[in-house]
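Message: Study each token:
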Amino acid sequence: MDVFSVNTQATVRVGLSVTTAEPLLTGGRLDGLGVYSRALLEHLPHAGVDVLPLSFAPHGDARKLQLGRALPLSFPLATLGDLILPSSVHLSTRVALGKGAAPIDIFHATDYRIVRMDCPVVATLHDALPISHPEWASPKMRKLKNWLQAKAARKAQHVITGSHYSIRELVEYFGVDEKKISVVHHGVAAHWFDQPSAEERDITLGLHGLREGYFLFVGTLQPRKNVERLLEAYLALPPVLRSARQLVIVGQAGWRSEELVKRIKDAQQRGENVIWLDKLTDDRQLRHLYAGAGAFIFPSLHEGFGLPLVEAFASGVPVACSNTTSLPEVANGAAVEFDPLSVGDITAAMTTLARDDAVRARCIAAGHRRALELTWDEAARRTVAVYHEVLKK
């Protein structure tokens, strides 16, 4: 059977890249790409496709994979083959599936690891940040990653991205044909809507020295997350408000975070109510932290989507967020928006959510409605619709 043709009566077989979610390759700590890949792995089967998890494993590690099978070549070797071999030569997915296995109908790459394959390829590209804003991206292997993403954009038969904002970036910086791009908003898992018991929540809060009602931020400490201004905005609040509400920052120290870490520790030494949880990896505890928050503050300067926003909505927490890039699209009016470059604006938004009960109630209700629109089940259904469109061509 020609792998480019599909029997419409048969279930579509999807080779899903799970490289970013494979425990052997990630050490068990998922970033945004890993969360996305894992969510598709869990939800795509319910949307009516057969999912075959595949990874670009390092040489020698193929037999140790936990989520699926290894593609026949590591990504560096497959990329090298792309460069030196004729364009008619493709990476065979049949080798990974084993002798006698039915071929896959389509391959979905959930990150930049894309090479020519013996079936159509759909690629999810989240943004063009390293090119559009190089000052916010680590210089380590930046040129190589930029080249790989641009190559991926050209090789894929179709591109999925998480927001309409990201379309503009992919067209401008990667030269992707806008007709080849579909927007599929990311989602939130169903368990985020299940409020933990007060006892469970309080145990977690007590473990970390937290008092219910704090301002919460979740994300890696790196320049584009704008946590420096969040800290400044918190310290500009009236003393009575700072005394009543802690600032809780959840996230690992990332690239160029040394000065921010120093400022956080200086504030703590001065007795400010600033808590930094840099080693939290338990998803259940994270849900408890959302549930105990009085407000979620997301001052990011650039997001292709902004998943923590939707997690806060589903958790029943009022949200204040930046009015830039994809965030107004994702919030869709359910959050108090502010200029992320203005410390005064951030302080005003924090004060509003702390003191205005009517605004808080409106944000909680609107956030819950918005989260119900942005589930992984819905994302999976829309993703499958893209597969079918690609396979019709």
Observations:
- The two ends are 17 Å apart (CA to CA).
- The first strand starts at residue 13 and ends at 17.
- Residues 190-373 form a domain with the Rossmann fold fold (CATH 3.40.50.2000).
- Residues 357-373 form the longest helix (17 residues).
